[in-house]
Amino acid sequence: MKDRRKSIFSVLVATTLVATIAPPANASATISGEERFQPSVTYDLSVTDAERDAIHAEVEALAGRVNSARAGDGTYNPLTLVGAMLDGSSYDSISRGGTAATTYPFPVSNTSANQNEYDRKVAKLAWVVKLATDLGFPVVVQRQADKYVYAEIGDPDAPEMIMALSHLDSPTSSVSAAQLARWRDADGNLGTPGAYHSPYIKDGWVYGAGIQDDSGPTLATLLAAKALLEAGLPLDRRIRIVMGIYEDGGPGTPTAANTAAFQSIPYNSNPSFYDNWAYKNLNREEMPIAAYTSDSRFPVIVGNSGSVTPAVSMSLAADSTKAFRLTAATAGVTLREGDPTLKDIAYGSTTQIASRAIFTLDVAGASSAERDRFVSAITAAATTKGWLPAAPGTTPKVQTTITGDSLTLEINTDVAMEMPTPQYGKNAVVWGMSLISQGLGAVGGTAADLELKKAADGITDLFFRDGVEGEAYIGKYMGIPANLLRNPNNGTPNLTLALMANINSETPTSFYTEATGNLSMPMYVRSMHVTAADSSQATAAATAAFQAKGFTIGNLGSPIGAGLYVTHDNPLTALQFGSYQASINRSPQQFPDPYALRDVVYPQGTTGGTLASNFRNKMTAFGAVIPGNERWWHTANERMKVDSAVQMTKIMADGMVEMARYTGPAGAKFMWADMPGLNADRADLDLLDVTIGTYKDASGAVGANKLGNQALLGATSFNIPMWNGRGNSAPTAAAFALGHEPGGVYLPLTDPEFQSSTYVAPMRLEFKVERPGHMSDAAWAKFIAGGYGDFRFNILVGGQVVPLAVPAGQSADKYFSSRISATNPNAIYLSVNLAITDAPYTGVQAKLADSKTDLYKVNPTYLASNPDPFPGRGAIEQRGFFQFGDGQKNAEFSSPDAVYVTVANAVTDAKPSAVVKKLKGNTNELTITVKQTRIDGSESAVTGTFTINNNAAGTYTVGDYKVYVDTKGNTQIRSISIV
Fold first, then answer.
1. Does 806 have pLDDT greater than 80?
2. What is the DSSP letter of 753?
3. What is the predicted pLDDT for the residue at 212?
């Protein structure tokens, strides 16, 4: 093959993906000396420390930090992270509902009932288009005025794309009549009209609707990509930032039939989210190889959890006549001096864990000394934990007061924590029970025999053993077998147990009834268990643990059925988890809160759906809330710390680069092609289970006996099952396990179309060939210019090498291509077009076919009376394909033993050396050695020996080389070079 920025080289680099299955660790670490749990699926990161530093520096340069500001006041740069968040939240993009039209372009309704939804969304999206354009993105696309916008960076010829898809809207729940009365404007006034879309910065916080869910994080993804654009780091894949605007509500999704009346989509079905419908169905955009949405939590969310909500109870009636008996217990949201809006977090849709607790004890029968011992013990314990003393101007974390015969213990953890992440700690009821246990123990006597002491001891042992919370909230001290605490593949907690959750009012909630002596605390248990057997074993152990402490607990059952965005063993999770860890570990001082929690943070499930639900096995939720941060969700005075916004953007940018690099030797662009007798409709990434770990290194299969005088540049193997439908659902682990069986996620082998047709997957398979370390600049330049010969593609089938040869008279450019990335001068990408059929292998046929990479196709009936709104899309191009069967008809596309690329193993570097040996008389012996290095890194040498009289200076022929020797005197070599 000639021209096409010519071929190739390099020994096949080891793949960066390591998805090894190792025995799971026995326990997870929460206290010193314990070995931290390690997931069995791991990932070798490609981003270097220097690259990470460069990314973070670019994010800081784009941060635009200001101490105080109001949207539109001219005190900030609108082309910065902070500026974009302020300006973005100044648009009223609350999703107030309405309907969508049933015909193209399916505009949303624009009525007084939805406060002119169409106009409001159009205005914000127009602003986003201008923002992305002004930021310098080379690609900015909007198909319809009232729907998503995307910006893209990277080589436009790269066959694969990774994506961040998030949303710019907010829900009506944050602007109900009750919530509107709670919103404060920049001056602190309550109920100011329009306060929710008049964002401002105060005391290091950015306030405004959508700041945290999800306009702010969505814009952070855009600024993260901008930082990467500025950093100019090597990328193999394109990066696309998609910004939708209807995740929190909006128009009803048009029916599949209405959609199909405009857009022809084989095997059409509707996603559950409107933004996903607009992207996937209405406009049939390109599917990512891997993606995330910024609309949940770090480090990575893998799916939606199952749940059960028992009450944990104990009767304290036996204490009714004793000193230090409990008379009242309430829980709420922590207090924070100078922060009057903190209470509003309780009205969000994600319920809070108790971050404030107030215990009232009757000490009428206690002596003054006993009261002092109780208070002293509590004060000492709180001081040891660092909860006391309180810093000036802050709310004390622990306060005890005695008024008459009533003793009040109040706990304020200072940070409001949400129910889905109890393992991050700061549960005020647990803190309080721990202190009460120590206080009553110090009093001794009858106080040590109180039922309250028994309850406090039990809660402390289950949730605060050794003064540590953390993994106690995943059941570590409940007798659950260690191998059932976390999923062995990715570390996801199988259970999270949020004691005293469901705090959803600023008025503290009672969890003790004095009249009956009943102590009762709701516990929100979330399950990501894969099997009922494992779940039953774990919940039985948890139930027994509470009962052993004297508690009654509601039925835990054996909850399973979590909907998974990605399988537990998907390397995308390992990539994002590893990238998150590397981000915070690189600069702990920049990430103090998440760094402090690093030992208890793992992938996990969430309690509500996200946009990732509709991108099966290709998308997770990655952000926005950082472990240790407060989660403001669907409530008045929504906010985020400026520091957190910057941290989030750095973490996102790091993850984007990692996702945008090949994890193995190859990547591929799937396409449609018109091939007689073959069905290419399923050659659509949305219908194929392709992940970032699909293309495996197969260099080991191509032995030296298969290469001859060729150097191996890259080899891959892969297996790609077909989904049973488009990836518009989040299946359970059980459905994944069923595979092609009834109820499984893959195309059933009984499907009538499967039985009656042969599927084909046309693809452009691309190999990344990196510059070898031994190759000089000159040799590399010669290499990529084709100076060492053409490359050859082959397949290995049953041990036999089958060359992929272009038929005589046809152009090689139809079958092969290459590219050089502008961001990576030390790599070249080599591609071959394959058409793999789900059929027996009968040899290779080279065929020309009309094909397209953009699968957009308007319904002919629509086109009969309407113009095509995007005539440049869905273009047909003739390409050449090497067609062959994958071996068996099984609803999967499998490679042969290997697909690989080689080049003549030419010499790329030759270095001469010489020695002179003095003989008798005036005769000397000159030995010249030329060491040769070939493309694959192997070395050889050619030697010439010459007898000379006196001076050895001169030109000598050694093998194919002319070598000039310069001497000093008769025997000393001054220099030597090839001429």
1. yes
2. H
3. 96
**Is the separation of the CB atoms in 814 and 854 below 8 Å?**
no
Q: Which of helix, strand or coil describes residue 966?
A: strand
Question: Which residues have C-beta within 8 Å of that of residue 354, sequence separation ≥ 6?
Answer: 331, 332, 427, 428, 429, 500, 501, 503, 509
Residue 401, class by beta-carbon neighbours within 10 Å (0-12 exposed, 13-18 middle, 19+ buried)? Answer: exposed
* Total number of residues shown for the chain: 979
β-sheet bridge partners, residue 887: none
Q: Which amino acid is at 643?
A: D
Strand (E) or helix (H) holding 738: helix 733-738
Q: What is the pLDDT of residues 676-702, one digit of tens each?
A: 999 999 999 999 999 999 999 999 999
Q: Which two tokens stand for residue 544?
A: 């027994």
Band (9; pLDDT cuts 50, 70, 90): very low
Nearest C-alpha neighbor of 412 from the set 426, 422, 393: 426
| Angle between the N-to-C axes of helices 451-463 and 532-548, in degrees from 0 to 180, rounded to the nearest 10 | 140
Nearest residue to 353 (alpha-carbon basis) of 364, 341, 345:
345
In this structure, what DSSP letter does residue 572 have? Answer: H
pLDDT computed for residue 22 by the predictor = 33
Cβ-proximal residues to 695 (8 Å cutoff; 6+ apart), any chain: 662, 663, 664, 665, 666, 667, 668, 716, 717, 718
Which pair of structure tokens corresponds to residue 565?
């965005």
Kindly report the average pLDDT of the chain as a whole number. Answer: 94
Q: At 972, is the secondary structure helix, strand, or coil?
A: strand
Residue 33: per-residue pLDDT: 57
**pLDDT band of 930, cuts 50, 70, 90:** very high
Q: How far apart are CA 621 and CA 609, in angstroms?
A: 10
- Identify any residues that bridge with 904 across adjacent strands, giving them in sequence order: 710
Cis peptide before 214 (omega within 30 of 0): yes
pLDDT digits over 113-151, tens only? 999 999 999 999 999 999 999 999 999 999 999 999 999
Long-range contacts of range 463-469, CB-CB < 8 Å, 24 or more positions apart?
Answer: 463/427, 463/430, 463/499, 464/430, 464/431, 464/433, 464/434, 466/31, 467/384, 467/385, 467/434, 468/30, 468/31, 469/423, 469/425, 469/426, 469/427, 469/430
Q: What is the DSSP string of 104-125?
A: TT-PBP--TTTTSHHHHHHHHH
Whether this model's pTM surpasses 0.90: yes
Alpha carbon distance 333, 344 (integer Å): 9
pLDDT higher than 80, residue 356: yes
The Cβ of residue 631 has, within 10 Å, a number of other Cβ atoms equal to 23
φ/ψ region of 203 (left if φ > 0, alpha if ψ in -120 to 50, else beta) reads left
Q: What is the tens place of the pLDDT at every residue in 909-920?
A: 999 999 998 888
Beta strands in 459-517 (DSSP E): 495-499, 509-510, 512-513
Q: Say whether pLDDT at 11 is over 70.
A: no
Q: What is the pLDDT of residues 426-459, one digit of tens each?
A: 999 999 999 999 999 999 999 999 999 999 999 9
3-state secondary structure of 127: helix
Q: What is the per-residue DSSP string for 143-162?
A: SSTTS-EEEEES-TT-S-EE
Q: Kindly give the pairing relationship between strand 907-918 and strand 923-934.
A: antiparallel
CA 748 vs. chain centroid, Å, equals: 30
**Which ranges in 268-413 belong to alpha helices (H)?**
274-276, 368-384
Share of the chain above pLDDT 70, in %: 97
Q: Per-residue b/e over 827-844, b at no fewer than 16 CB within 10 Å? A: bbbbbbbbbbbbbebeeb
HEC string for 236-289: CCEEEEEEECCCCCCCCCCCHHHHHCCECCCCCCCCCCHHHHHHHHHCCCCCCC
Helices (H), 464-609: 532-548, 571-586, 592-596
Residue 12 clears pLDDT 60, i.e. is over it = no
Region 880-898: mean pLDDT is 98
Angstrom distance (rounded) from CA 719 to CA 263 = 30
Q: What are the two backbone dihedrals, phi and then psi, of residue 346, each rounded to the nearest 5 degrees? A: -65, -20
Q: Rg for the chain (alpha carbons), in Å?
A: 33
